[in-house]
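Design a sequence for this backbone.
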C-alpha cells in the first residue's frame, strides 16, 4: 500500500512539473513573439522617421524654391510697373484688354522676357509696320556709354540707341551663344541686312561689331574693338547715327556674346537751285535693293534762302514728265516753302521735286531722316 501511494505522488508531481514547464515554454515563446513584433514596430518607426525627415527636407527645398521664385516674380512685377509708370505720360492704357497701349501714332504690345525683364512690339499706325524692341540691360548700357565716350573724344556725334536695332543685335548674340558659332552671318547665311529688314527697319547702310568676352571684363569690350582696324573704323564712322547693342550671357551669365549694330538713317544735301530749274530727290530709292517693300516714314527738314515749290511725287518719272511736258503729276503739293519740318509716309519710288519759279538762285539745305522707333 505504501509503494502504490508513493508512485501516485511521483506521477502527480511529474504532471505538475510538466504543466509548469509547458507554461514556462508558452510564456517564453510569447515573450519572444512580443519582442520580435516590437522589433518590427521599432524598425518600421525608424523607417517612417527617416521618410518623415526626407519629406521635411524636400518641403524645405520647395519652400526655398518658392521663395526664390516669389522674389523673381516680385522683381519682374516691380520692373513691369516701373515701366508702366515711365510710359504713362506718353501712352493711354487700354484697361479692357490690358495688352495694348495706344497713342495717336503707335500701339504697343508688351510681354515678359526673363533676360531683358520686358520687351515690346511697337506698331506704327501710319505705316502698320511692327517693330520688336527690347529695354537695354546693364551690360548693354555699359557698352553704349563706352561707344559714345569714344566718339566724343574723337569729336564725333554720339549715337542714338534704337531699341528695335537692339532687338536685332541681342537676338544675334543669343543665336550665336545657343548654337555655338561666332560670325556676322548665321549658319544659314542670314546677314545683318536681312536681320534688320526682318524687323522692318529701313536704313541707308549698316555695320556690325561682335565679340565674346568674360562678363567681368564687359567694360573692356569697346576698348578691345578699338585695337582692331576694322572694328575701329565702324565705331568711328561719322555717317552712323543710330546703334543697337545686344548682350547675351551663358554659363551662369559669366561668358557673354556681344553684338553692336550701327546704322545710318539720315542723309542731307546743301546746294543751290537756279531760277527756272527743277530738281528731284529720292525719299525711297527703288534702285537700292535691300529687299524692303513696305511703306516707310520719313522726316524732312528743309531750309532755303527763299521759297520754292515743294512736291511729293510718286516716282522719278513724274519729275521727268514735268520737265518734258510742263505738266505736274504729284502725290502732294506741299506748297511754296522756305522752311519745312514734317513727317511723311512714302512708298518705294517716292521722291521730292523742287521747282524754283522765282528770279533768284535759291540756296537750301535738305535733311531726310528715316524713322522707325
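Sequence:
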Amino acid at each position: 500500500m505504501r509503494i502504490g501511494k508513493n508512485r501516485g505522488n511521483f506521477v502527480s508531481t511529474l504532471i505538475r512539473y510538466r504543466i509548469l514547464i509547458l507554461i514556462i515554454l508558452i510564456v517564453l515563446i510569447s515573450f519572444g513573439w512580443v519582442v520580435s513584433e516590437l522589433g518590427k514596430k521599432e524598425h518600421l518607426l525608424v523607417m517612417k522617421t527617416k521618410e518623415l525627415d526626407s519629406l521635411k527636407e524636400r518641403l524645405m527645398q520647395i519652400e526655398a524654391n518658392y521663395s526664390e521664385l516669389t522674389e523673381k516674380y516680385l522683381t519682374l512685377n516691380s520692373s513691369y510697373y516701373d515701366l508702366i509708370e515711365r510710359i504713362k505720360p506718353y501712352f493711354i492704357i487700354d484697361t479692357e484688354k490690358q495688352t495694348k497701349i495706344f497713342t495717336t501714332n503707335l500701339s504697343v504690345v508688351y510681354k515678359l522676357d526673363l533676360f531683358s525683364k520686358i520687351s515690346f512690339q511697337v506698331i506704327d499706325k501710319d505705316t502698320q509696320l511692327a517693330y520688336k524692341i527690347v529695354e537695354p540691360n546693364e551690360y548693354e548700357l555699359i557698352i553704349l556709354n563706352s561707344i559714345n565716350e569714344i566718339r566724343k573724344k574723337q569729336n564725333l556725334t554720339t549715337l542714338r540707341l534704337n531699341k528695335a536695332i537692339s532687338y536685332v543685335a541681342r537676338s544675334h548674340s543669343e543665336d550665336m551663344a545657343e548654337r555655338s558659332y561666332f560670325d556676322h552671318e548665321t549658319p544659314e547665311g542670314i546677314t545683318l541686312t536681312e536681320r534688320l529688314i526682318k524687323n522692318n527697319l529701313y536704313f541707308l547702310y549698316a555695320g556690325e561689331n561682335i565679340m565674346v568676352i568674360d562678363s567681368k571684363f564687359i567694360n573692356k569690350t569697346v576698348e578691345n574693338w578699338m585695337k582692331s582696324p576694322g572694328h575701329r573704323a565702324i565705331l568711328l564712322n561719322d555717317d552712323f547715327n543710330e546703334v543697337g547693342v545686344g548682350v547675351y550671357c551663358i554659363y551662369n551669365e559669366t561668358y557673354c556674346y556681344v553684338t553692336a549694330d550701327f546704322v545710318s538713317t539720315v542723309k542731307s544735301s546743301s546746294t543751290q537751285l537756279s531760277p527756272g530749274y527743277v530738281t528731284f530727290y529720292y525719299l525711297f530709292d527703288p534702285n537700292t535693293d535691300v529687299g524692303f517693300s513696305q511703306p516707310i516714314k520719313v522726316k524732312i527738314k528743309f531750309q532755303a534762302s527763299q521759297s520754292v515749290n515743294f512736291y511729293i511725287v510718286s516716282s522719278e518719272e513724274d519729275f521727268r514728265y514735268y520737265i518734258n511736258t510742263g505738266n505736274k503729276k504729284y502725290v502732294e503739293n506741299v506748297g511754296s516753302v522756305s522752311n519745312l519740318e514734317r513727317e511723311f509716309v512714302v512708298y518705294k519710288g517716292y521722291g521730292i521735286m523742287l521747282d524754283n519759279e522765282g528770279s533768284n538762285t535759291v540756296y537750301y539745305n535738305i535733311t531726310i531722316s528715316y524713322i522707325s522707333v
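The longest helix spans residues 2-87.
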